[in-house]
């Protein structure tokens, strides 16, 4: 029951059972806990803080590009879903319904929002009258609910946290530009901040957002070779404008429909960064979102460790003041070795060891979580050395993830080839596709892989469809996905 | 339909109809809009940004005092509410219920959280095993729902945004200390940041939180003399620990129940700051939370205004770089006078006027939204002068609000006296109270005023109950309240 006991429990090795490894790690590192409500998790402080760092940085980037936040109701009247045909078909099976409130049955039942296109479309119709009111560039940070049959913490939960941007524009060109701009922000953020390489591309029609004209995604590869859709950006055309009557008086004094977009990322990103970077010792957290970036641990013979105290406090204060998220674990009843394991399991990017001899020499030791590299650094240069190592850890994490992805990226020409790959090694497979839904479905039925996207930058352009052998219209990446 | 037309519409004067004034102002200033769901509003960007500034600063203060954020599910199983008797009685009438989800009827219906004591209590019971796990200091930023019969934008809406802190402690003394510490943080924040003077005190038993041992509040006075409870902090004793089995192994190796607290403020604060500071020309926003702190407007003869452009851009950049939230309105087809009215209505704390003659003299003009004071300042000292005026505006807003509250604070000795006051002038009335619920209810029935709190710092100690004439146990402030 004591904490100490809890941490020596083994983590299932990734090779043995990746799913068990994942659950072991997020539970032990106290990122989450299961709640008593089906499919809903509790974000514990270390899990939630990762989200806070993601949120702060994305929010900064959204505002820098002219977006503002707003907040729309959690409840959506049933009739709203009927207005856009594809949208209702896509989301209806997953909705939870409020049917009673305040002791009475409701006249019209209310869905808990799975996404807010309908509610926001309704409001935009009131706010947008003239081309002078455009563009409208609004984002919302909110909880949404999709009643999922199979759930997995962070990656697929009934309730999750996300941001949803919703914009309205005068022209198609402007709306398409916005769609791509936000996709680019997602890619930059996920690579620069979470150290996850991603593949940008367009979704096939069967995989696009319910109600969109075109959906674009960034796709990341987990360490078991499966894909996660890490962010999406949709060009809606005038589908929602027609459904919700978002009309404006144009420059030629005629009524026109606005062109809208939406785009979002969610707490799935937390699951993704764990599955991309973690190893058999536990979490490996990207430095920019790690709740603790540096853990300070006094070392050396127990009876001498006290001598380190005062100087260690000074160094701690110096690091903290420079904006580094540092923690000190100077508990005397717990051994340094046990602490090393604990904070490795928790994924702290840099360990700072300091012992009585280091003290005399004016140095201390930095250890990288990702490579295990040790650096003896001068105490007088500690802040810059720590910053440098945090930066190096980020780079190395990104490089390793990129290498892993490249090593598990295959080009295939037949369904048999893909099937064999999916069973043996997993990964992303590039293949030609004729554009028919029948062939796409055949791939899924035979291999378990779904089309991830049609990459913007493909190494290769395939000539024939891997299923029917007809001319390929697109070169598509298929993978099993979370 | 054009924006210009919209703003010249009159605002109902406060004296004529305070409620209509309030709605006129928040709609015209585009802080909110009504949604198609009963009692739920849309927070438009300027309204939501006020909340963002409130949130950022409170969050900073919570973290500084050792609290961390987490996130718990939106849904609460019906059985959870049954566990704490007072709690269920207090909240049951206001709950919305999810009865269907994913196309099926639920086995146990789920409430949308009105507050999270029950869910969090359930989780704390899992996490807290030993006195070494204490204290647990967690806060949550979330949406909550209470299905209200009568609603008012920001002040009482079915869905609202808030933070709820939930802490667990080893001893009663420590939990009580936390309760008071958070009440103090609320008071400081509301006074220092929103320029609203508040009265700290303890709630009478009939007005305390459902399930609490003691509830404390800060109460603010609106410009119509009515009260708003601007924040509350509760000492729960072991009520929720017993109900949810939050037990831990104490220092004496015996099982003990944790002592818990909870504390919260909500988007009501937005409604409060509008009703405390606004005037017949519109909003008056406290500088620290105003989305736009300074509005720059080029003035002078239209044909000369262009000359101002380049220098105005430089000053704008200087202000922006120094962290001031500045906006420029240099639209040439709209007159300066119209702009003055517009940004006064929107409550922008400082207007910066700059004309061709000012340009020659190296000066510009700052105008205070609250007093109308004009200051001619040197352009070379603009940043510090703007900061000084923002600070002065804050101080003056606080002083005016304090003066208004003092002018509407009455001491009464009989129910007749209170009744007359409530009908003529409104305001806060200090009175003796014997402690019986019968007398408290009599006050409400006769005057419409409810007990706000038993102030910690009372000017006066009353000897007899204003209703029954028996010995007064407490000196209470009564007021009509939102």
UniProtKB/TrEMBL annotation, chains A, B:
Any one GO BP annotation for this protein: prolyl-tRNA aminoacylation
Superkingdom per UniProt: Bacteria
Keyword Aminoacyl-tRNA synthetase (UniProt): yes
Cell compartment(s), UniProt: Cytoplasm
InterPro entries (UniProt xref): aa-tRNA-synt_IIb, aa-tRNA-synth_II, aa-tRNA-synth_II/BPL/LPL, Anticodon-bd, Anticodon-bd_dom_sf, Pro-tRNA-ligase_IIa, Pro-tRNA-ligase_IIa_arc-type, Pro-tRNA_ligase_II_C
Enzyme class: ligase
Catalysed reactions listed for this entry: tRNA(Pro) + L-proline + ATP = L-prolyl-tRNA(Pro) + AMP + diphosphate
Matches recorded under SMART domains: ProRS-C_1
Pfam family, one: ProRS-C_1
Every Aminoacyl-transfer RNA synthetases class-II family profile domain range: 38-286
Gene Ontology terms, MF aspect: ATP binding; catalytic activity, acting on a protein; proline-tRNA ligase activity; transferase activity
Enzyme Commission number(s): 6.1.1.15
Sections of the chain in a coiled coil: none
A GO CC annotation given for this chain: aminoacyl-tRNA synthetase multienzyme complex
Primary localisation category: cytoplasm
Entry's family note: Belongs to the class-II aminoacyl-tRNA synthetase family. ProS type 3 subfamily.
Entry domain remark: Consists of three domains: the N-terminal catalytic domain, the anticodon-binding domain and the C-terminal extension.
Subunit description: Homodimer.
Role according to the record: Catalyzes the attachment of proline to tRNA(Pro) in a two-step reaction: proline is first activated by ATP to form Pro-AMP and then transferred to the acceptor end of tRNA(Pro).
UniProt protein name: Proline--tRNA ligase
Species whose genome carries this gene: Paenibacillus popilliae ATCC 14706
GN (gene name): proS
């Amino acid at each position: 029951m004591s904490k100490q006991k809890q941490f020596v429990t083994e983590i299932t090795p990734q090779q043995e059972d990746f799913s068990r490894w994942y659950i072991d790690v997020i539970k032990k590192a106290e990122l989450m806990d299961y709640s008593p409500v089906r499919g809903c998790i509790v974000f514990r402080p270390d899990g939630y803080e990762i989200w806070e760092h993601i949120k702060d940085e994305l929010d900064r980037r959204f505002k820098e590009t002219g977006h503002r936040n707003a907040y729309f109701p959690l409840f959506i009247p049933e009739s709203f879903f009927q207005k856009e045909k594809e949208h209702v078909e896509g989301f209806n099976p997953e909705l939870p319904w409020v049917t009673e409130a305040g002791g009475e049955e409701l006249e019209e039942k209310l869905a808990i929002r799975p996404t807010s296109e309908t509610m926001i479309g309704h409001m935009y119709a009131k706010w947008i009258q003239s081309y002078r009111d455009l563009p409208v560039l609004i984002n919302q940070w909110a909880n949404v609910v999709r009643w999922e049959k199979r759930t997995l913490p962070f990656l697929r939960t009934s309730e999750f946290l996300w941001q949803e941007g919703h914009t309205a524009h005068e022209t198609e060109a402007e709306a398409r530009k916005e769609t791509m701009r936000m996709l680019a922000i997602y890619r930059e953020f996920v690579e620069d901040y979470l150290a996850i390489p991603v593949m940008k591309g367009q979704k096939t029609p069967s995989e696009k957002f319910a109600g969109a004209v075109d959906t674009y995604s960034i796709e990341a590869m987990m360490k078991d070779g499966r894909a996660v859709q890490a962010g999406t950006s949709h060009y809606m055309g005038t589908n929602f404008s027609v459904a919700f009557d978002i009309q404006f008086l144009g420059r030629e004094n005629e009524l026109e429909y606005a062109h809208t977009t939406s785009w979002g990322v969610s707490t799935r990103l937390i699951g993704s960064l764990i599955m991309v970077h973690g190893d058999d010792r536990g979490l490996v957290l990207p430095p920019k979102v790690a709740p603790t970036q540096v853990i300070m641990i006094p070392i050396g013979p127990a009876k001498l460790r006290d001598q380190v105290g005062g100087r260690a406090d000074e160094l701690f204060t110096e690091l903290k003041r420079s904006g580094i998220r540092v923690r000190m674990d100077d508990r005397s009843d717990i051994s340094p070795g046990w602490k090393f394991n604990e904070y490795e399991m928790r994924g702290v990017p840099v360990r700072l060891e300091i012992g009585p001899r280091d003290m005399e020499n004016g140095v201390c030791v930095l250890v990288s979580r990702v490579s295990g590299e040790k650096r003896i650094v001068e105490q007088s240069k500690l802040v810059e050395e720590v910053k440098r190592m945090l930066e190096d850890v980020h780079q190395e994490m990104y490089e390793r993830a990129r290498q892993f992805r490249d090593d598990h990226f295959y080009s295939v020409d037949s369904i048999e080839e893909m099937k064999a790959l999916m069973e043996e090694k997993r990964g992303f497979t590039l293949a030609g596709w004729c554009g028919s839904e029948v062939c796409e479905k055949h791939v899924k039925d035979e291999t378990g892989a779904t089309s991830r996207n049609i990459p913007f930058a493909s190494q290769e352009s395939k000539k024939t469809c891997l299923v029917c052998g007809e001319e390929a219209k697109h070169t598509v990446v298929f993978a099993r996905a979370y």
